[in-house]
């Protein structure tokens, strides 16, 4: 756990506001100015009607000037107050969001497998705004009612310190009750927040899976599921409101004990001494004013608790385990591309059997090596290890003889271009997707597009290379999406290429073209191909057959057929399928 994670929530939140505290101080001054004019206006009115300006026409002319002036100052102050508050809020929210995104970008691979994207969106987009807005308003209201409450308390002490001390006897009881109420509010507000995240995840699913939903005629099913989660959000929000509504009656109940005590003592004093009725009336009036301020302050506990509950959710994201980059070595340039797995063992957290069980194999530099095996055999796990997304529990992986654990993640990943089964595209232009995170070079773009058999298609697009391709490439066909991903890998021009089922969505002609492009690079790049369609890897220099995380056999297509083992059986099975 980071040192940051052990700090109290409030002080962690303050770190986002602190750089903008000048805005906060100016907000305070502006509101103070507005409050000052509020006090001036009745004073002035009193002065006018008290005959202050009667004597002299010159003074009379000042009335509208001063009044309009005061209202103008008040307007300016309250505008400045609101503006400065928003200025501070928006900047703090931006810093908060940036810190959350920074965390999101660096999470450990295992965290992503558990995380639902609806919850991540809520935590980064909505929560920082809501937390700081709630706390900002609580803070302002606390100032508005808290300052007069303190003034009133001092006044009460001056009037009668003994009575005031007696009134304060109920303070521990009040504190205890408020803690009880707050505890309940926090518990139900946590449930409400979790329900809210569930709701966001459901909506995210509805938007993402709309085709499947309609294809299965599942609109009523999804409506029902949504209604259940929405119902739970409603119920929990109501519970939170009910719990926080307890705060007021509870504090009033305790306050009434204090007032009764004072009344009994004071009336008894007046009766016995016959003195002090006037002072007592003054005292009770001030006390009632104080209580009304305290009542407003007790109303602030709910939004403050709610903000803290949401903040805890955000901090969970901020404190989630990050990817460890313990490597210190940088490869000086492109690797030769010789990869060796040596007795690699990998068991995923929570799994009962290892995904890779003492696996030893080699991807020779400049050669094409295929990985085949039944679903779940461990092919993708090998790729995740090569890219440093997971780490072997035992054994080692060496790149050009160097243990990859000693390389920085950035240096390791620069050596690979990957086209995976799940194609991930960005909601930007064709060109931005292909030259992703690289310097844009028109000639290289054209070469990559031509090699991926996309160039002619891009010429037909309304804005050519600059045409947006929609969320995750939704404006493209399956084959086009795959070709954009292939062009992106080609553009990166890394020494090792990984094609994971990369040609599965291509029509025969495009597949042949991509195969030709790959063949053109054969011998110059280390190619690792994962294919279920064995016809696509016949020409590979070496084929490794995996089964249950172990190497079953290795050899060329011809050698493996001659051996008549697992590979030959897979080939026979696929030819029988036709
Ligand atoms: N994040 C994970 N957590 C737990 N188990 C996992 C995880 N990823 C994979 N596995 C398990 O590890 C084993 C190997 O999975 P892997 O994805 O490497 O297989 P594969 O050969 O690539 O399969 P396919 O051809 O279906 O993609 C499987 O039993 C799988 O269920």
UniProtKB/TrEMBL annotation:
Statement: the UniProt record of this protein carries the keyword Transmembrane helix: yes
Gene Ontology MF terms in the entry: ATP binding
Topology term for the membrane: Multi-pass membrane protein
Compartments (UniProt record): Cell membrane
Residue span(s) of domain ABC transmembrane type-1: 25-306
Highest taxon of source: Bacteria
Protein name per the record: ATP-binding cassette domain-containing protein
Organism ancestry: Bacteria, Pseudomonadati, Pseudomonadota, Betaproteobacteria, Burkholderiales
């Amino acid at each position: 756990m980071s040192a940051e994670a052990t700090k109290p929530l409030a002080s962690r939140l303050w770190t986002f506001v602190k750089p903008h505290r000048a805005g906060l101080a100016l907000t305070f001054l502006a509101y103070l100015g507005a409050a000052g004019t509020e006090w001036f206006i009745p004073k002035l009115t009193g002065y006018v009607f008290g005959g202050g300006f009667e004597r002299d026409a010159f003074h009379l002319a000042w009335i509208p000037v001063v009044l309009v002036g005061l209202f103008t100052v008040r307007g300016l102050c309250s505008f400045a107050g609101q503006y400065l508050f928003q200025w501070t809020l928006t900047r703090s929210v931006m810093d908060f969001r940036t810190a959350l995104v920074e965390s999101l970008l660096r999470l450990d691979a295992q965290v992503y497998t558990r995380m639902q994207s609806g919850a991540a969106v809520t935590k980064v987009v909505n929560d920082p705004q809501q937390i700081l807005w709630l706390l900002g308003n609580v803070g302002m209201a606390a100032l508005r009612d808290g300052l007069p409450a303190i003034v009133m308390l001092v006044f009460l002490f001056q009037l009668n310190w003994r009575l005031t001390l007696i009134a304060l006897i109920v303070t521990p009881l009040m504190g205890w009750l408020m803690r009880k109420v707050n505890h309940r509010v926090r518990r139900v507000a946590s449930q409400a927040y979790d329900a809210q995240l569930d709701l966001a995840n459901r909506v995210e699913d509805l938007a993402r899976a709309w085709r499947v939903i309609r294809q299965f005629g599942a609109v009523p099913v999804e409506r029902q599921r949504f209604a259940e989660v929405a119902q739970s959000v409603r119920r929990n929000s109501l519970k939170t409101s009910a719990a926080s509504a307890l705060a007021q009656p509870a504090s009033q109940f305790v306050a009434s004990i204090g007032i009764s005590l004072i009344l009994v003592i004071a009336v008894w004093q007046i009766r016995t001494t016959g003195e002090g009725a006037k002072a007592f009336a003054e005292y009770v009036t001030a006390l009632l004013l104080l209580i009304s301020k305290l009542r407003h302050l007790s109303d602030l506990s709910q939004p403050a608790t709610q903000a803290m509950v949401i903040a805890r959710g955000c901090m969970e994201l901020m404190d989630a385990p990050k990817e460890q980059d313990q490597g210190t070595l940088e490869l000086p340039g492109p690797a030769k591309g010789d990869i060796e797995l040596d007795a690699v063992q990998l068991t995923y957290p929570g799994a009962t059997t290892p995904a890779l069980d003492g696996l030893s194999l080699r991807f020779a530099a400049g050669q094409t090596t295929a990985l085949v095996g039944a679903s779940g055999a461990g092919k993708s796990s090998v790729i995740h290890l090569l890219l440093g997304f997971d780490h072997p529990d035992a054994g080692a992986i060496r790149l050009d003889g160097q243990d990859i654990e000693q390389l920085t993640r950035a240096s390791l990943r620069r050596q690979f271009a990957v086209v995976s089964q799940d194609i991930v595209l960005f909601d930007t232009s064709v060109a931005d997707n292909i030259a992703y995170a690289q310097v844009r070079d028109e000639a290289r773009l054209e070469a990559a597009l031509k090699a991926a058999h996309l160039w002619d298609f891009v010429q037909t697009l309304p804005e050519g290379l600059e045409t947006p391709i929609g969320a995750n490439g939704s404006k493209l066909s399956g084959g086009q999406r795959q070709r954009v991903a292939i062009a992106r890998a080609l553009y990166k021009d890394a020494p090792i290429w990984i094609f994971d089922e990369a040609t599965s969505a291509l029509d025969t002609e495009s597949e042949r073209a991509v195969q030709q492009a790959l063949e053109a690079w054969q011998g110059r790049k280390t190619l690792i191909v994962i294919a279920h369609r064995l016809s696509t890897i016949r020409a590979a220099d070496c084929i490794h057959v995996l089964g249950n995380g172990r190497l079953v056999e290795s050899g060329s297509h011809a050698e493996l057929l001659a051996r008549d083992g697992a590979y030959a059986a897979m080939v026979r099975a696929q030819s029988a399928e036709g």
